[in-house]
Every structure is written in structure tokens, then in C-alpha cells.
Specification:
Helices cover 41% and strands 20% of the residues. By secondary structure, the chain is α/β, with parallel strands linked by helices. The strands form three sheets. It has a five-stranded mixed beta sheet, with helices on both faces. A hairpin with a 3-residue loop joins strand 4 (80-86) and strand 5 (90-97). The longest helix is centred in the last third of the chain and has 25 residues, at 295-319. The protein is globular and about 70 Å long.
């Protein structure tokens, strides 16, 4: 039994610090591990050697700054994580390992509104199919990350009242999917997962403080502060779509008037173009038409950017993030929307905060949320299992 403060407990804590740093980054050189953990180079070298001998990490030759180095990542056999992302009209599933390598991925159209039970049953089927096709043993799975487009109580796992997924309100998709798969499930909303995905794999890499803005059927923001998702005590932090822009504006689904969402979300802006482009116009099609030179689509996108910029300016004044990442189909508009976002930020944000802010498009497109679901498992899992079991993992029933 380890005594707190003893040499053995200190060594154990250092092992966990190194494993945690590697787990969150995917791979690091030994010099980067030393900087991330505050441990000496000699201590890191000894710990990496011990972890490698125990099969917890893999070490491969690389280069850093023109010098030879060794890249450290968790062993490909240490465990498997699963990501499940429910969009408004799609389901996407990804399988990855603890070294941040995506091993399999599949997406399909799905009317998520129809039924929570049908959606979760389809997710169960896709997960099991991908695991089987990849030849992965189910007992290697350490957890599942689940994303839904609605407000989630992260403690209870219950989906709050939402006009986006009315058939899911009051359900507990986390517990339901955990019962179906027999593994731990971690759940969050799509904006938070988009932020995690871009932070770990995409346009947010290297930023300790950022906001991920997603404009789709609704408008939400995932907030990263000091490298961690900030959810707030009720899990509703980042509801940027409900900042009031005009008290006499359109009535929002939340019951207020003139929310940012009523000037930017697809359900409000696409009807402005129906007379010219038909009622089946999508956000992606509007963006394509704008790139092709359509003046109406270009004007709507520019206006949406100005409104989003007003919301981003409020975030700048409150939180002073270093980077804002725009996700969803709207990000494909590039400078057609980014330029007007930046214009509004410069106009409405405190000058010092505006000068420090980068506004960039997401790098992952429609994959940001499912990759964020993988990152959610990586961030929530503990390090003790990896050290104690050397990658033995859990033993899920997987419905058996």
C-alpha cells in the first residue's frame, strides 16, 4: 500500500502525468513531455523507458527542430475508443485508438427527429458493424463518446427540452447506449464536441483558449478555457445563439425576440432565398451558389457573418479567447463570411481583445463532432487502468 508523499506514490504520480500528457496530445517528443509535465528530461526518459517496457507506450524515431528525437504515443493495443455523433439529419460513427489514429469511420443519413430509440438502435448497429469489420475485440473498448444537437445535463445525461430534437427531450441517450453496448458512455452537445475535435485534430491545435461556433439548425458555441471544455454548472455554457441582438426582432424558439439564432440559423436565413432557389435550399447549397457568384446568397452570407461577429465580439469582451473556429457548412464560405465576422469583431470588441483574436474556418468539416466524441473519451478516461492493466481494457458485454 502506497503512503501519500512516499517515493513510490511520487513515482506513480509522475507515471500518470506522463501518460495523461501523451493521451491528450496523441504523440509527443520526450522534450515536449518534459515541458508539458514540468518533469526533468532525465525523469521523463526513465519513465518513458518503463512505460515502453510495460507495453503502455510506443516510441518511434522522429525529428524536432532539425534534430533527431523520439516520438512517444500510447500503444496501439492499449485500448479502443468509439465516437457517435447524431446530427440533425445524419449519424456518424468513428473508431480510434489511444494513439489518436482513426481506424474506421462511417456516416449515413438519418432522420434523427423520428425516434430516440430508433436512432440509438441504429447507432448500436453501426458501432458493432465497424468493430467487427475492423477485426477489433470488443473487450478492447474503453469508452464511447456520444454527441447530440441539444442541451445535455452532463451529470444526469438527460437531454433537455429542445425544439431541434423534440422527440428526444427528457430521454437519457447516454444510459441507453451504455446499456446497449455494455461500455461506459460519455455524452456532450455537438458544439462542445466540435470544439474538442478542432482542439485535438484541427484548427484549434496549439490554442489553450478558443471558441468553436457552429451554425446549423441552431447556433451554439463550444468554449475551451485553459485547454478544457467549459460547460457551466448546468451544462448550458456557450448558448451564443440566444444573445439578444434586437428586442423587437423575430420570436426565437427559446421564447425571446431577436436572438442571434434568428438572424443566422438555417431555419431563419434560408427562407430569404426560397423565391429564387426553391424551398429545398440547404446551407451547403447556398454556400456553393455564393462561391459561384450568386448575389443574393453572397449578401445573405455576408449579413450572417456580421451578426455572428457581434456575438463573437461579446465573447471577446467576456472571455478574451485567442482563437475562434467557425464550423458547420457555413465555414466552407471562407472569406465570404470570415471577413464580415472579423469586421464586426473589430467594430464591437474591446480593441486589445480584437487584436489578439484569430478567426479561422474549421479544418475537419462534418467530422469535427465525431472526432470530438473520440477526444471526449480520451479526456474523460483515467490513467490508472492503462498503468494497472497495461492495455487490458474493460470487458464489455456488447449486448451478449
Amino acid at each position: 500500500m502506497e503512503t501519500p508523499g512516499s517515493q513510490s506514490s511520487l513515482h506513480r504520480a509522475n507515471l500518470e502525468r506522463v501518460v495523461r500528457a501523451v493521451r491528450m496530445a496523441g504523440s509527443l517528443t520526450q522534450a515536449e513531455i518534459a515541458r508539458a509535465t514540468g518533469l526533468s528530461a532525465a525523469t521523463v526518459s526513465n519513465i518513458v523507458r518503463e512505460l515502453k517496457d510495460g507495453g503502455t507506450v510506443e516510441v518511434t524515431p522522429t525529428s524536432s527542430g532539425g534534430r533527431r528525437a523520439r516520438s512517444v504515443s500510447l500503444s496501439g493495443d492499449a485500448g479502443i475508443v468509439v465516437g457517435v455523433d447524431f446530427g440533425h439529419t445524419h449519424l456518424r460513427v468513428a473508431i480510434g485508438n489511444l494513439a489518436h489514429r482513426v481506424l474506421a469511420e462511417e456516416a449515413e443519413p438519418l432522420d434523427v427527429d423520428a425516434s430516440a430509440a430508433q436512432g440509438l438502435a441504429r447507432a448500436e448497429y453501426l458501432v458493432k458493424s465497424l468493430i467487427a469489420a475492423a477485426g477489433i475485440s470488443p473487450d478492447k473498448i474503453v469508452g464511447v463518446g456520444l454527441g447530440v444537437p441539444g442541451p445535455i445535463d452532463v451529470e444526469s445525461g438527460v437531454l433537455g427540452s429542445t425544439a431541434i430534437l423534440p422527440g428526444w427531450a427528457g430521454t437519457n441517450p447516454r444510459d441507453d447506449l451504455a446499456a446497449r453496448l455494455g461500455v461506459p458512455v460519455h455524452v456532450d452537445n455537438d458544439a462542445n464536441l466540435g470544439a474538442l475535435g478542432e482542439l485535438v485534430w484541427g484548427a484549434g491545435r496549439g490554442a489553450a483558449d478558443l471558441a468553436y461556433i457552429k451554425v446549423a439548425s441552431g447556433v451554439g458555441a463550444g468554449l475551451v478555457i485553459n485547454g478544457q471544455i467549459y460547460r457551466g454548472p448546468g451544462g448550458t455554457a456557450g448558448e451564443i445563439g440566444h444573445i439578444t441582438l434586437d428586442e423587437s426582432g423575430p420570436v426565437c424558439r427559446c421564447g425571446n425576440r431577436g436572438c442571434l439564432e434568428t438572424f443566422t440559423a438555417a431555419r431563419y436565413v434560408l427562407p430569404l432565398l426560397h423565391s429564387a432557389h426553391g424551398a429545398d435550399l440547404t446551407m451547403a447549397r447556398m454556400v456553393q451558389l455564393a462561391h459561384d457568384g450568386d448575389p443574393g446568397c453572397r449578401r445573405v452570407i455576408a449579413d450572417v457573418g456580421r451578426y455572428i461577429g457581434s456575438g463573437v465580439a461579446n465573447l471577446c469582451n467576456l472571455l478574451n479567447p485567442s482563437r475562434v473556429v467557425l464550423g458547420g457548412d457555413l465555414a466552407e464560405a471562407g472569406d465570404l463570411v470570415l471577413s464580415t465576422i472579423r469586421e464586426s469583431v473589430s467594430r464591437y470588441a474591446i480593441p486589445s481583445a480584437a487584436r489578439q483574436l484569430e478567426v479561422v474556418p474549421g479544418a475537419l468539416g462534418g467530422r469535427s463532432e465525431v472526432l470530438g466524441a473520440l477526444a471526449l473519451v480520451l479526456s474523460e478516461m483515467g490513467d490508472s487502468t492503462l498503468l494497472d492493466d497495461a492495455g487490458a481494457g474493460h470487458a464489455p458485454s456488447f449486448g451478449r
